[in-house]
Every structure is written in structure tokens, then in C-alpha cells.
Amino acid sequence: MTKQNRIDASGYTYAHEHLHIDLSSFKNNIDCRLDQYGLICEEMKTLVNLGVSNIVEMTNRYMGRNPQFMLDLMRDSGINVIASTGYYQSAFFPGHVAHTTVRQLADEMMSEIEQGIEGTTLRAGVIAEIGSSKGIITPDEEKVFHAAAIAHLETGRPISTHTSLSTMGLEQLALLKKHGVDAERVVIGHCDLRDNLDNILRMIEQGAYVQFDTIGKNDYYPDERRVAMLQILSQRGLLNRVMLSMDITRRSHLKANGGNGFDYLIRTFVPMLRNAGLTQIEIDLMLRDNPTVFFN
């Protein structure tokens, strides 16, 4: 049976994760090859027991995506995985992107949405993670954004982006809108890697969603400041445009390898939000209701 790759609305959703990714050759670091099936499967079982039903898996082509790995995880752990199609950012593009037309890139994405990924029954449910470089959208990245817009308009699947260190989110949104995408079908990723409230407010004002999706990466930006930004968004009644995740990408992020593990968001960060005055309704909004509306 073909996987429809839609959200199970009964539980929580991590909106931006990786279950199998391999950037090790690019970064010359084996830690960047996340592929330890047994450890990841156990962490998924833990999440299911904590009320998490869905993982939106952001690994697209040429990032080390592995559709069979995801199908096996769904079978063995009970987690529902939403797979991605697209291209990441310029530094990781294969050489052919430079001389492939926008239409051809769009057709590739649409094939993975409508037919399946690499001959498997797994179909992409989101166009992601469509990325830009730090402080710039390169010409090839602009081409991929255009292709993502076409694929979205022809399939209805939403677009989830990668910003490098929380830069260029507004520019990404403007580019997608220029190509006919409704802002409500876009979520801007990695908005929580610096003091970014002004840009976040402007994106939400236009109707886009934003992700606080590097939770637990305190060496980039402390969780206390993530909580402070979310408090302000709560006070302004804007949490209906926010989704949460951890963007786990490394072996060292897994609990068995000494990292926070996937359950950190539920077991550590959610209590921080409660202590900061956020209500259970608001937590459910970010972790259940918003992803269900956006990804379905």
C-alpha cells in the first residue's frame, strides 16, 4: 500500500527532524552520519509513548535520505514519518542543479510526491528543506525556490525552508510569494538561532508559519532565550503560527551517545515553557494543532 504521508492528528508532531542523514563527507566528520537504526528506533518508541505521533523528516535528495530506513522505522516503532523532497542549499547541491531547468527540478519533486521516492512506496509529503546560505540566496538557490513553488502549486504540498543561522527568512518568503505561493503554506525554518523576534513578527504578520526547531542546541543559542521569545509571541496571541522541533542531525545528539535525545523537547523544554507561563492549550497548539493544519 502506498504511504499517503500525512499527519496523524491524534498526537504531537516534531516539525523538523532527521532520522537518516549523511553530511559526513562534506563535513569530514563521521558524527554527521546519522544512521544508527537500533538507537533511533528505541528513541522513536519512547516518543510514541510520550504522545508524539509524527516526525517530519527533512532529509531530501543528496543529504543522505534513506526511504527504506524510514519505512522500517514506521513499522518497528509506530512513529509516522512525513518524508521530504527538494534540495538543501548551494554548498550541498549536486553539480547538475546549475544546468537543470526550473521545470525539471519541479518535475523531480513532483515525482517523489506523486509516485514515490527511489522506487519505494514512500511518497514525499512536504517540499523541504529548501535552503539558503548565510546572509544570501544564491542564484541556484533561487532556482530551487522557484521549482519548489511550482511543485507546491501543482501538488498542494507545503514548503518548509532552511535558513542559515536565522538569516534570509523574510527574503525566502518574498521569493516564494513572488512565484505565487500563499504565505500560509510556508514555514520558515531555524528562526530560533539568534535574537530574531522582529523578523519572526514580520513573517507571521504575512501569514507564514515559523519554526523554533533547534531546541536543545544551546551552544548556538540558549533555550532560555527561545522560551523568552515564545513568551512574547504568547502574549501577542501569535503561537498559532509556531511549530517546535530539535533538528537532530548527529550521532552525538542521540541519548545513547551522550546527547539530549529526541525526548528532550517533551521532557525538558515543555516543562520550561510551562514554568514560563505558557498553557497546555498553547503547547498543544504548537506541537499538535499547527502541524496538523499545515502538513495536511
TrEMBL record:
GO molecular function per UniProt: hydrolase activity; zinc ion binding
- The entry's a divalent metal cation 1-binding residues are H16, H18, E129, D247
Q: Where does a divalent metal cation 2 bind?
A: E129, H162, H190
The UniProt entry, under InterPro entries, shows: Metal_Hydrolase, Phosphotriesterase
Alphabetized UniProt keyword annotations: Hydrolase, Metal-binding
The entry's free-text remark on the cofactor is: Binds 2 divalent metal cations per subunit.
**Cofactor(s) this protein cannot do without:** a divalent metal cation
Tell whether Lipid biosynthesis is among the UniProt keywords. Answer: no
> Into which family does the record put it?
Belongs to the metallo-dependent hydrolases superfamily. Phosphotriesterase family.
Record protein name field: Phosphotriesterase homology protein
